[in-house]
Amino acid sequence: MKTAALFIVTLVVIAMVGGGVFAFHMLSGVLPGAAAQAAPPPPPCPTVASTTVGTISVPAGPVAGFCQDRLVNAAYIINAARALGLDTQAQEIGVMTAIGESHLQVLNYGDAAGADSRGLFQQRDNGAWGTLADRMDPTISATNFFKKLVTIDGWATLSPSVAAHDVQVNADPNYYDAYWSEAQSIVAQLTS
Question: What is the pLDDT of residues 45-77, one digit of tens each?
Fold first, then answer.
């Protein structure tokens, strides 16, 4: 009798746990053994005429997955580097950093690392990056980024991500590696 009762209790527990797992999968929208669905592709870039930022003709896009509104910001970064006499590598580091910080958007809000961070580079309100207006201006914020970059000993010999990290002082020196090839593609396309 005790064995039969223990067997029934065990079946109830298994059913409850098994049912709980099934219910969890139902709530998450994924059934055991079901294939995960791929994320939908990004929407196409709107059809617009190319625009000019300084001497750079900015296409509608996409370039490395970015449409013209964000490519315009990349052009501001490239022009800021050029105005300081900096080469293609510096331009790529600047674009890479802005991709990693804001996905090439001028953000008017911060993140978990800094609620006071703003702009393309998510620069902090600590006096080092100028006023809020400076941080929200793509040319000024990029110029300030590059002015800091060139003060780093041997920046051109560092890996691009480490060079960006030394400017931004974020938690992970390798964080920007994921954005390097996109930055190279954007700079190559906008400067060709």
Answer: 988 888 999 999 999 999 999 999 999 999 999
**Whose CA is closest to 165, among 86, 78, 178, 35?**
178
Q: What is the pTM of this model?
A: 0.78
Nearest to 58 by CA among 77, 71, 47: 71
Domain annotation covers residue 45: no
Distance set, CA 127 to CA 79, 94, 120, 123, 149 (Å): 24, 20, 17, 10, 17
Containing H/E element for 138? helix 138-149
Q: Are residues 159 and 78 in the same domain?
A: yes
Domain that holds residue 149: 51-191
In angstroms, rounded to a whole number, what is the distance separating the alpha carbons of residues 14 and 18?
6
